[in-house]
Write a structure and sequence with these properties.
It is built from 8 helices and 8 strands; from the N terminus they run ααβαβαβαβββαββαα. The protein has one domain: Peptide Methionine Sulfoxide Reductase, Chain A (2-Layer Sandwich), CATH 3.30.1060. α6 links the parallel β6 and β7. The longest helix has 17 residues. The relative contact order is 0.22. The strands form 2 sheets. The protein has a 6-stranded mixed beta sheet with strand order 7-6-1-3-2-8. α5 packs across α6. InterPro entries: Met_Sox_Rdtase_MsrA_dom, Met_Sox_Rdtase_MsrA_sf. This is Peptide methionine sulfoxide reductase MsrA.
Length: 224
């Protein structure tokens, strides 16, 4: 299923790296508190790692998926230690904005998470996703072992065989190394800042398209 990108003319001046984002988040009124699992509780679940544009958008999409227990925004795919948003978002590192997904394999499989990944962004745009441009917004499917790599590559082959996209898939398939958690104000950004400009114009519409196209993957209302 092809992923429709919003016309850039409608998004002029909006991007994930807006310099006003931190100020807006610090003054935003938070929504109802989210159920937070302890680090010990999270260790009971499997992890998967993906990058597909602004992590605010990607986090919200995976948070909506059944079997997903927690999603953390951060940085991965580069070599620099202790990256910061200021450096990553403005292309000063080799990292991409990424998410760490904690999931219950009894409810959702890694292969299904790969489907979510490809079904929720455009994997044919090089170093770009929607209005966000730069290698920090590139498409990456990370694998931790041979089995996961095989799942990713086989799924890409299937998409190509079915000619799902008009252009070649440029998603990088990368061995996972290190994930660096982003600053606290980025976590659950969309949920806590529904009226922020970028969230209203880009992130929420992207989430809604995913929900419309993949209803069987969604959590029941009120489920964590």
């Amino acid at each position: 299923m092809k992923y429709a990108i919003l016309a850039f003319s409608l998004l002029l001046g909006l991007s994930c790296q807006s310099k006003n984002n931190k100020k807006e988040v610090e003054t935003a009124k938070a929504d109802a508190p989210k159920l937070i699992l302890s680090p010990a509780a999270l260790q009971e679940y499997e992890t998967a790692y993906f990058a597909s544009g602004c992590f605010w958008c990607v986090e919200a999409i995976f948070e909506s998926v059944k079997g997903v227990k927690e999603v953390i925004s951060g940085y991965s795919g580069g070599t620099e230690k202790n990256p910061t948003y200021e450096n990553v978002a403005y292309g000063r590192t080799s990292h991409a904005e990424a998410v760490e997904v904690y999931y219950d394999p009894k409810t959702i499989s890694f292969q299904e998470l790969v489907q979510v990944f490809f079904g929720s962004h455009d994997p044919t745009t090089l170093n770009r996703q929607g209005p966000d441009r730069g290698a920090q917004y590139r498409s990456i499917a990370f694998f931790k072992n041979d089995r996961e790599e095989k799942v990713i590559r086989n799924y890409i082959k299937a998409l190509e065989k079915e000619m799902v996209y008009d252009s070649p898939i440029v998603t990088q398939v990368v061995k996972f190394d290190t994930f660096w958690k982003a600053e606290d104000y980025h976590q659950d950004f969309e949920r806590r800042n529904p009226n922020q400009g970028y969230i209203k114009a880009v992130s929420i519409p992207r989430l809604n398209r995913f929900k419309e196209n993949f209803p069987t993957f969604l959590k029941e209302e009120g489920a964590h």
